[in-house]
Amino acid sequence: xxxxxxxxxxxxxxxxxxxxxxxxxxxxxxxxxxxxxxxxxxxxxxxxxxxxxxxxxxxxxxxxxxxxxxxxxxxxxxxxxxxxxxxxxxxxxxxxxxxxxxxxxxxxxxxxxxxxxxxxxxxxxxxxxxxxxxxxxxxxxxxxxxxxxxxxxxxxxxxxxxxxxxxxxxxxxxxxxxxxxxxxxxxxxxxxxxxxxxxxxxxxxxxxxxxxxxxxxxxxxxxxxxxxxxxxxxxxxxxxxxxxxxxxxxxxxxxxxxxxxxxxxxxxxxxxxxxxxxxxxxxxxxxxxxxxxxxxxxxxxxxxxxxxxxxxxxxxxxxxxxxxxxxxxxxxxxxxxxxxxxxxxxxxxxxxxxxxxxxxxxxxxxxxxxxxxxxxxxxxxxxxxxxxxxxxxxxxxxxxxxxxxxxxxxxxxxxxxxxxxxxxxxxxxxxxxxxxxxxxxxxxxxx
Length: 447
Ligand SMILES: NC(=O)c1ccc[n+]([C@@H]2O[C@H](COP(=O)([O-])OP(=O)(O)OC[C@H]3O[C@@H](n4cnc5c(N)ncnc54)[C@H](O)[C@@H]3O)[C@@H](O)[C@H]2O)c1
Fold this sequence. Notes:
- The chain is of the alpha/beta class and 447 residues long.
- The protein has 19 helices and 14 strands.
- It folds into 3 domains: 14-209, Rossmann fold (3-Layer(aba) Sandwich), CATH 3.40.50.720; 219-301, N-(1-d-carboxylethyl)-l-norvaline Dehydrogenase, domain 2; 309-443, NAD(P)-binding Rossmann-like Domain (Rossmann fold, 3-Layer(aba) Sandwich), CATH 3.40.50.720.
- 44% of the residues lie in helices and 13% in strands.
- Strands 3-2-1-4-5-6 form a 6-stranded parallel sheet, with helices on both faces. A 6-stranded parallel sheet has the order 11-10-9-12-13-14.
- Helix 5 links the parallel strand 4 (90-93) and strand 5 (127-130).
- It starts with 13 loop residues before the first strand and ends with a strand.
- The model has no long low-confidence stretch (mean pLDDT 97).
């Protein structure tokens, strides 16, 4: 280690740049672990909410923790890069990396803006840590940016990909499966080990890597998960053609410990702010690197996933005797998955919009995601409750598996609808129970 470098402080002061789903959770959890934390964003409305103690999105357990750490004075928010540069020893960059419009590649403008805004204020040796999911090669470019724009020439970079799941974000941040530390020097490693000391002391495995591996770990993990989901959805297509039942198939192959049962739920497929754009960005980066063949299967993973949405529309149409025109359809679910209000690339809303375009009279209900859905899909109609959504419906489509929908009573719902038709887009209802209550039940990958 460079003897002139400052040793890692026992409790580094932390900044978190970008207070979205990832950044807010990270900032709050770091404060919960006892660190002094400052969160920065460029979105003034989001900062106002956070300063007032309101989490700007739905994440179980996070509001309570925000209130607690703000009460303890360990977390505050700002829009000033000068302020965070003066304050923090370690800066986490958590800004978004969405898909570029009209392309497969990731849009890195927010990452570049965050580094460019921070660098000119860095006049002492600190560690900047990239947490955003980025294409391989980004860290090296950001390192060069810091070297050319930071007044202090000893500023270091690390990459520390994040694996939290929305809906379990607090638990995943405080008790991660593993910590991946992409570092160049022992000094950077020691800073990160100091930041993550509580997790490391409680036994969280640490994987030390170079930058490129740290960047790739995240997209490789998401590619694997997406492939597993599309694998079982491909099997669902075959099950439909053979009369087999994909839920039994998943149960049976899932008992093999080498395969495992998780992520083998056939249904409407994946969406959200990560899996779809991460596999597409991986395809784009692999093309630039000349290794597109290595990930060409991801095109198929994406195609299988999108085909599920079309298949759900077909199933609904069959139940409506071939025509959507003026039929009342209740869509249960708008979030891309339960326990989240995230509607980025939501399969449920994609299907709702598709059947709306075909002339159906669609009423969407979701326990948490209605505000977001209204903004992105202003042309859809929204209901205040599941019961309001299904009233007088010709067809009910369960498209996001919230517990509230899984627990619905077919008898009770049956008294509200006009026709007892249901598409279970997530394979979470008991077909025998629904059929016994007089429903025509259809699902993906089973009869
Ligand atoms: N959401 C997840 O579950 C999750 C999990 C793991 C990794 N990730 C990755 O984390 C990153 C962030 O994802 P997210 O879901 O939190 O996105 P998000 O859109 O919820 O949040 C991004 C935030 O960055 C802010 N921002 C944009 N430009 C900025 C700038 N120049 N300076 C400061 N703030 C700026 C935005 O205002 C926004 O609040 C992405 O790369 C994503 O792939 C997300």
